[in-house]
Amino acid sequence: MHRILADDLARLPQLLQSARDVAVREVTGLAERPVVRLDRAPDRAALPREGAGAEGALARFTEDWAPGFSGSAGPRYLGFVTGGATPASVAGDWLTGAYDQNVSGSGGSWAAALERETVAWLRELFGLGEEHSGAFVTGATVSNTVGLAVAREWLGERLGVDVSREGAAALGPVEVLSGSPHSSVAKALSVLGIGRDRLRPVPVLDGREAVDVDALETALAALEGRPAVVVANAGTVNTVDFDDLRAIAALKERYGFWLHVDAAFGGFAALSPAYAHLVDGLDAADSVCVDLHKWLNVPYDAAVQFTRRRDLQVRVFHNASPYLGPPTGEPDFLHLTPENSRRLRALPAWFSLVAYGRAGHREIVERSVDLAARLGEGVAALDGLRLLAPVRLNVVCFTLADDPTQTRVGALAEAVAASGEAFLTPTVYGGAPALRAAFSNWRTSRADGERVLAALASALPTLPD
C-alpha cells in the first residue's frame, strides 16, 4: 500500500473528525454566509505529482474552494426549486459513502432491499397504489427519461414493434402532447430518439399553465386512433399550476395514450390535506416523476420514478450478460434504470423518512407554502413590483411593475444576488421577463422571507432607467 494511503488509513478516525468539524462549521454558519458567490473562481491548478494526504487535501479545499461555494443548502436560496439537506439525510449521505454499496443487484447485501422499502414508503406518501413499482434515479430529468422510455416501449407494443430491439425509428412519427412541459421532457425525447419536435403543445386555460382538457381531447381525437403519449403536470415550474389529472385520465377510456405525470415537486402536495386535491388522479398515471432533492430535502442527486408497467421497463433497461443474471422474479435495479453501477441514493431518504415521518415532511411543505404566500403578499404591496400569477403553492412569480425589460429584470436578480441575501432565478411568463422565488428548504423561516423582501426593496432603486 502506498505510504500516504497507509497513513490515512491509520489516522482515519482523526481524518473523519476533521471533515466533520469543517462540515459542522459550514452548516451552522449557512444562514449567514452569502447565498451565492459571483466573483471569479481560482485558476486551475496542475495535477499534484505527490499527494498531500487527506488532511492536506482538506486544508487545500477549505482554503481555496470552500469560500466560493454557494449557500444553496441554506434558507434564502430560492432559485430553481432547490431543497436543502435535513440533518438526518446528511447523516444518511455520509454513511452512503462509508458503506459504498453498489445497488445494481441484491446479491450479497441488503442494500437493494432497503431501496425497495424506501420506494414503497414514497409510493404510499404520494398516494400511489401497489401496482406502481419504482426505483431511485439521479434527478427529475432521468426520472422523466425513464418514464418516457417505458412509454416508448408501450407505443411499440400497441403498434406491433419491439422498440428495444428495432429502435425508435421503427415506430414512425410519435405524438407527445402536453400543455406546459418542463424543458427536461424535450431533452428526454431527444435522448430517446423520439425527437424534440415531436412534443406537441396543447392550449392551456386562460391565464393558466394548466392544459385545457377539451383542447387535449380534440388533439387526441385528431390522431384517429393512433396511440400517443400525454405528459401532464403536477406543479409547473413557473407558477406551480396543476393539470386536472383525473379528467385527463378519464380520456383514456376513449383514446389510446400513455399518461406520464411530471410531479417533480408538485407531487409533495399530497402530504397536506389542504393541497392533496391538486394531485387527485396521480394514481391513474402510467408513469410518474418525483424529484427528492427538492421538497424531500435530501442531498443531490436523488429522484424516484414509478410505473405501472415494470415488464416494459425491464424490456428497455435489462442488461443481458451472464455475470449479471436474468431479470426474473423481483428484477435487480440494473434492469430498471439506465445505470448498472448505482449509488445507494435511497439511504439519505430512508434516514429522513424514519427521522421525521409523514408529519415532519408535511410541516416542511405547509411552512413553505405559507412563506411563499407571505412573500407574494409582500411583492404585491411593494411599489415597483407586481405578481404575474397567483401564488398557488410554493413559487412566487413576479416582475417589475414598470418597464420589465430583460435587462432591468436581470439587473434586479443580480443586485439581490450581489447583496448576499438571496438568490432568485429568471424566467419568462406570459411574454414578460420575470423572477421566481421557490420555497422548499427545510430551514427557511418567516424571518428569512422578510430578509428576501427587504433585499428586493433595497435593490429596486439601483436599477437602470
From TrEMBL:
<keyword id="KW-0456">Lyase</keyword>
<dbReference type="InterPro" id="IPR021115">
    <property type="entry name" value="Pyridoxal-P_BS"/>
</dbReference>
<dbReference type="InterPro" id="IPR015424">
    <property type="entry name" value="PyrdxlP-dep_Trfase"/>
</dbReference>
<dbReference type="InterPro" id="IPR002129">
    <property type="entry name" value="PyrdxlP-dep_de-COase"/>
</dbReference>
<comment type="similarity">
    <text>Belongs to the group II decarboxylase family.</text>
</comment>
<dbReference type="InterPro" id="IPR015422">
    <property type="entry name" value="PyrdxlP-dep_Trfase_small"/>
</dbReference>
<dbReference type="InterPro" id="IPR015421">
    <property type="entry name" value="PyrdxlP-dep_Trfase_major"/>
</dbReference>
<protein>
    <submittedName>
        <fullName>Glutamate/tyrosine decarboxylase-like PLP-dependent enzyme</fullName>
    </submittedName>
</protein>
<dbReference type="InterPro" id="IPR010977">
    <property type="entry name" value="Aromatic_deC"/>
</dbReference>
<keyword id="KW-0210">Decarboxylase</keyword>
<keyword id="KW-0663">Pyridoxal phosphate</keyword>
<dbReference type="Pfam" id="PF00282">
    <property type="entry name" value="Pyridoxal_deC"/>
</dbReference>
